[in-house]
Amino acid sequence: MGKTKTIEVRLKSLKTTATPDDSWFENHQKVFGTGLDVHPNYKYLEGDDSYIKMWFTYMGVDWKKQTDKLDELLKDIKKNGINDQIRIYRDGRINTGHKRACIALFLGYEFIRVEVVPDDFKL
């Protein structure tokens, strides 16, 4: 994978990343920005499921199953903390761990430890 390092970052400094094949989320970012606080997962945790419904319906995925997974992860993180490393690029874009990062922000975490991956590390 190449050389990586683990650092502590402020959650609010992280940015979400759209994959090249996810035009709905890319458009969402153009309208609302790339902050965790506007991510459909975070909005769902706050009680607004409209964005997550639109997003997963666009992708042809059962949005209810996805929110059930998010709810289970929320319960697990409340009980056990974040056990799987969130990975980011040097510029603060999240590579993996969008759900965990949104949950951490929702739960009031200010800082988290992340692994910084090379810019060419695949999503």
State the main characteristics:
single chain, 123 residues, alpha+beta, four-stranded mixed sheet, 5 helices, 4 strands, globular
Verbal overview:
- This protein is of the alpha+beta class and 123 residues long.
- It has one domain (5-116).
- It has 5 helices and 4 strands, in the order βααααββαβ.
- It has a 4-stranded mixed β-sheet, covered by helices on one side.
- A hairpin with a 5-residue loop joins β2 (86-88) and β3 (94-96).
- α3 packs across α4 (63-80) and α4 crosses α5.
- It is globular and about 35 Å long.
- The chain starts with a strand and ends in a 7-residue tail after the last strand.
- The mean pLDDT is 93.
Give the structure's gist in a few sentences.
This protein is α+β, with helices and mostly antiparallel strands.
SSE order: EHHHHEEHE
How many domains comprise the coordinates?
A: 1
- Estimate the global geometry from the Cα principal axes: globular
CA radius of gyration is 14 Å
